[in-house]
Write a structure and sequence with these properties.
This protein is about 5% helix and about 50% strand. By secondary structure, it is mainly β. The strands form 6 sheets. The chain has a 5-stranded antiparallel beta sheet, with no helix packed on it. A 5-stranded antiparallel beta sheet has the order 18-19-26-21-24, with no helix packed on it. Strands 1-3-6-5 form a 4-stranded antiparallel beta sheet, with no helix packed on it. The longest helix has 19 residues. The N and C termini lie far apart (about 115 Å).
Length: about 350
């Protein structure tokens, strides 16, 4: 009887020792979690007797404060509209690995061109340009011109590579296709390598220009303060009052003009007693004429600019001087440009 009791006690002692030596390596709770698109942090409890490693499969997941009782998992905000998944591999020597899965929702989709721009003006030289955007969706961009090459498109910018322009001003129309949004159009306007208006300073008399109507356009060698070369386009008979209405044109033909908005500029000084009307005009090939008045009177030279619409490709541009009977007008123009 005594021997039986001793044997039973020994059996219980061995059983307790085996229970203490048992390998435990398990998660407490689910092996996965579904989270929103916002930043996330949570404690994941474990039941283990082993030292272990925790390795996430994605950079947007971090493992912190790893202990025997569990670990802290953190996930960065998901700015993309696409759902994503990361796996955390838990491994320990002598135990089967455990995979803890994190499923994160995508953010609501958005797309916007910053500052509500629909066009961009760039210089004639070769270089790069960026169209700034804000988005979390895939964006495809197509250019209709080889000189405007679309490079990398990311969530912040559309990157462009531009070739040098040695000719007239030109336009590349971009088609922007953000996934899940309406297609948008964007224009890249590159300045020309040369002035469109030839002899805008009249240094070679009226070369490249054609006169028509009354004889109002003449050249003067007078230069205002600040100008040291060239001639001035003026009109005869300062302050003379002509008894009859007068109209004169000074024109120049342009070809190969891309359609779009241009900027006309001129330096002008002049005054009037009884004013006439002075215009920059654009005469389209179909006979449509647009007039841009440049009657900003001032005795001192000052720069005048006007936005000019051209349909193209072949147009006639120039100056139109219209005067009622008895008008007393004088002016001087210098440095006409169309860009």
């Amino acid at each position: 009887m005594k021997n039986f009791i001793l044997f039973a006690l020994f059996a219980i002692l061995v059983s307790c020792q085996k229970e203490d030596d048992k390998v435990v390596f398990d998660l407490i709770g689910e092996n996965s979690v579904n989270i929103a698109e916002v930043a996330y942090s949570a404690y994941v409890p474990m039941n283990t007797t082993l030292a272990y490693k925790a390795k996430p499969s994605e950079e947007w997941v971090k493992i912190l404060d790893k202990k025997t009782l569990g670990f802290v998992v953190e996930a960065e905000r998901n700015f993309s509209s696409i759902e994503r998944k990361a796996e955390v591999e838990l491994s320990a020597e002598g135990a089967e690995p455990i995979i803890y899965t994190i499923n994160q929702k995508g953010s609501p989709a958005f797309f916007d061109i910053k500052y509500d721009l629909t066009e961009m003006k760039v210089g004639a030289e070769a270089g790069t340009a960026k169209i700034l955007i804000e988005t979390n969706v895939a964006v495809v961009v197509e250019s209709d011109q080889e000189w405007c090459f679309v490079g990398e498109v990311d969530y912040e910018a559309i990157n462009l590579q531009l070739e040098e322009n040695k000719g007239l001003r030109r336009i590349s129309n971009l088609t922007i296709k953000p996934e899940g949004f309406e297609v948008q159009e964007f224009s890249v306007i590159q300045a020309g390598g040369a002035l469109i208006i030839k002899n805008g300073n009249f240094v070679n008399d009226f070369e490249h220009w054609t006169k028509s109507g009354d004889d109002l356009f003449t050249l003067s060698s007078w230069l205002p303060e600040g100008f040291s070369e060239g001639q001035n386009l003026t009109n005869p008979g300062e302050w003379w009052a002509y008894p009859n209405p007068l109209e004169a044109r000074l024109s120049q033909q342009l070809s190969g003009m891309p359609a779009g908005e241009y900027e006309f500029s001129v330096y002008r000084a002049g005054g009037s007693g009884k004013p006439g009307e002075l215009y920059f005009f654009v005469l389209e090939e179909d006979g449509t004429e647009k007039l841009y008045r440049i009657d900003d009177w001032d005795d001192k030279y000052h720069k005048i600019t006007r936005k000019v619409e051209i349909t193209g490709p072949n147009v006639t541009v120039g100056l139109l001087d219209k005067r009622p009977a008895g008008a007393e007008v004088w002016y001087a123009l210098y440095n006409l440009k169309l860009e």
